[in-house]
Every structure is written in C-alpha cells, then in structure tokens.
Please model this.
Amino acid sequence: MKKLIRFTAALALTLMSACGGGGEKTTYSLKDVAFTLEGPLFEGPNPAQYTVAVDLKAILGDRYAEGVKVTGASLKSAHIRAVDSANFDGVGSFVVSLASDNPDLQMKELAFLNPVKPGTSDAVLSVSNEVTAEEYFAEKQFYLVVDASLLKDLEANMSFKGDFDFELSYK
Amino acid sequence: MKKFIVPMLLVLVAGVLTAFVHQNPEADRLMGVWEPSNGRARVKVEKIGAKYYGKFVWLKEPIEPTTGQPKTDKNNPDPSMKNVPLKGYRMLKDFVYKGNNEWADGTIYDPLNGSTYSCTIKMTNANTLDIRGYIGVSALGRTDVWKRMIVK
Model:
C-alpha cells in the first residue's frame, strides 16, 4: 500500500512539474525602453517598436547552461511613462504586442490600457492572464510594439519610455 | 587610420544590408488603407519587421450602442483582453510576401465572433485585393474583395 501511495505521489509531482513548464523561474526586465513616434501623427493608432535581442546568457547570468531553453514566458507588468514632464493627454489607449520575422510566430497582444485617464503620465497597463510568449524567447530577436491611439492629430513627435517585466521559466 | 576605417565600413555595410532586407517595393504595395466590401470598416496595412499587419483605422459604427462607449474587442477569447479598443486592433496579422502578387501565412480576425482564420491575400490589381479566409484548407473558405481607399 505504501509503495502505491509513494508511486502515486511521485507520479503526481512529475505531472505537476510537466504541466507547470518545469525548471527554474526568473524575471526578465526591460527598463527605460525609449519609444518615439515621429510627427505629424494622425488620430487613431500609431505604432512604435523596439527590437529585443534575446541573449539567454545575459538574461540568466550564472544560471546559464549550454542547451538551456525558455519553457514559459508571460508578461507580468507593463508601465509606460511620459518624458520631459509631459502627460498622455490626447492618448486614448495603449496596446503592447510582440511580433517576429519568423513566419511560424504570430503577433500577440500582451497588455493594454483603455482608456488612458486625462493627466496620466505613468500608465500602468493591464496584462493578459492567458497569453504566453515563450516561443519568442527561442528567437534571436523580436519586436516589442506599442500602439498609442491618439484622440486627435498631433503635429509634434511623441516620446515615452516603457518598463516591462517578463516571468520566464527555463530548463 | 585603417584600423578605424575598416570597422566603420563594415558597420555601414551591415546597416545598409539590414535596411535593404526589410525593403521590398513589390511586397510593400500591400501597404495603405483598404475597405472591405461591406464598407463597415477601413483597415490600414503596415509593415513591422518583414511582415505585414492590418489594423482598423475607421469604423462605420465606432460606438457600442449598449454602453455609449467606443467599441472594444468584446468577443476576444481571452477574457482579460476584452476591453482592448477595436479601433486600432490588428485584424490582419503576420503576412509574408510569396511573390506573384500574393501574401500568405497570415491570419484574419473577425471581431463579430472572436474567431481567427487562416488567410491569403491576392492583389488582383493595384487597388483591389482578394482576401480569402479559411479553416484548414484554402478550398474551404470565403473570399472578400477589398478596395484601396487612396487610389494610386
């Protein structure tokens, strides 16, 4: 009977480990990512993009080992900040997506803020509870796209910075 | 001096090559603003990296009658993303130019039911697209004709 209980417990642990993606976890933070939308800008969504170079050695540091792979990735937080004492008056919404040149990878929306309240200069976005992005961390690079939807035309450039925290599982 | 010139030239060549790789005038003809046959929306096609994406830039009925607020992606299968604004939503995603006036490997999203379908785009002339959405094989699908809004 004890053997059966031990076997069942071991099997349950194995399944839990497999279902949870297994391995270790770490946080990968992109801080102060600068985005500029070059004016004139028109009412509606305007995309800005940043190329993320995936370097697992740099991300994992001492924990890096040859052959390590990211088995799970989800965006945990996304902040977008206005620069130069500006605020986001005139911006209706923000949407954060990932895109890749790899034909096998589909663009994914990960976070948004809708509407952006007047006077906001530090926008805290809602992140998706379901969308994962581990396949993007198998690429050499991918694009982090921020769409700022303007409520009216804007003659000037628009600059902002973003902080993004991903939780990565790896093994 | 040579020590500096050679690396600088290499960097310059690499930059030019990178820019060249993502520029394809034949493929870029897809960019612009298009209107589906029902006239209820306008979709702007842009390029991100090497692929093409189309987002709603105009909706004939932008306001949700039940709330009086701008429409959101209320049928998104991910409950946490149902409040993403519909205007600006990318309903065409990840298209790659295959030559012969055809873009493929992409998807089209129908916000009326929250479904995503495989899709191919055929440019029949400079201002007309055949957009074919399908499930599984292309034969089992439906084609819609889109017109360019700013005629070239």
Observations:
- Chain B has a mean pLDDT of 89.
- The CA atoms of residues 64 and 71 of chain B lie 5 Å apart.
- The beta strands of chain B are 32-35, 41-48, 51-59, 90-99, 102-110, 115-125, 128-134, 141-148.
